[in-house]
Amino acid sequence: MQFVDVPQNTDEWQALRLGKVTASNFGCFMANEGKAFGDPAKRYALQIALEISTGRKAEASFSNEHMERGHEQEPVARMLYEEETFSDVSNGGFFDCGDYGDSPDGLVANDGVIEIKSVIAPTHYATLQRGSFDPAYRWQLIGHLDCTGRDWVDFISYCADFPVARQLIVHRLNKDDCQDELERLRARRAEFLELVRATLKTIQN
Q1: SS (H, E, C) 7-34
Q2: 3 closest CA partner among 116, 135, 96
Q3: 3-state secondary structure of 117
Q4: For position 108, which CATH number holds?
Q5: Which position among 35, 47, 85, 191 has the lowest Cβ density within 10 Å, counted as fewest Cβ atoms?
Q6: What does the pLDDT read at residue 191?
Q7: Using an 8 Å Cβ cutoff, are 44 and 25 in contact?
Q8: How many domains does the chain have?
Q9: pTM for the complete prediction?
Q10: Is the predicted pLDDT of residue 136 greater than 70, yes or no?
Q11: pLDDT for res 65
Q12: Cβ-proximal residues to 8 (8 Å cutoff; 6+ apart), any chain
C-alpha cells in the first residue's frame, strides 16, 4: 500500500484511480456474498476492465443535486467535526493498493479516517433513530480500514436542515470489532478481481 497525498477530484487523483477497484464500490461486489456475482458487480467489472484496456475513464460521469450538495457541504461538516472532536483532519488523498485503492474523506492523527455523508433530512433522521452508521455504507467503511491500515473510521452524517446541535452525527467503527468482515471483504475482493481479469481477457481476445 502506498499513500499518495493528492487533492481529491483533481485530474491527478482521477488518473490514480483509473482501472482500480475502489472502496466506494466495494458494496457492489459484496452483494450476494457467497453466491454468483450479480449484474451490478458484472457491470462494475466491465467498467474496470475497459479502463485498464483503454486507459480512459469508462463510467458515465453524472451529477445530481445530492452529489452537488455533498461537495458543497463537506468542508462545513469537516470543520464541525474538527471542532466537536478537537482534532485536525488532513487530506485523504489516495491509498494505492495495486489492483484496488481507497480515498477516505480525511485522515485523523496516525490511526483514524473519516467518511462524510451530506444527506437530506429523512436520511439523517434515520441515522439518528438507528443510533449507528448507515448500513448502506458498511463495506465502504470496512474498505477504509482495510486499504488504509488504520485503526478506526468515523462515519459522519451531516444535514444543515437540523438544529445546530443535531446537524452532525458521528459513529465510529473500530478495526478490532470487524475482523471477520475484513476477512470476508478480502476473500470476496480476490474473487471479484478474478472476474475483472476474465472480463479483460474477453475484451482483448
Answers
A1: CCCCHHHHHHHCCCEEHHHHHHHHCCCC
A2: 96
A3: strand
A4: 3.90.320.10
A5: 35
A6: 96
A7: yes
A8: 1
A9: 0.91
A10: yes
A11: 55
A12: 91, 92, 93, 94, 103
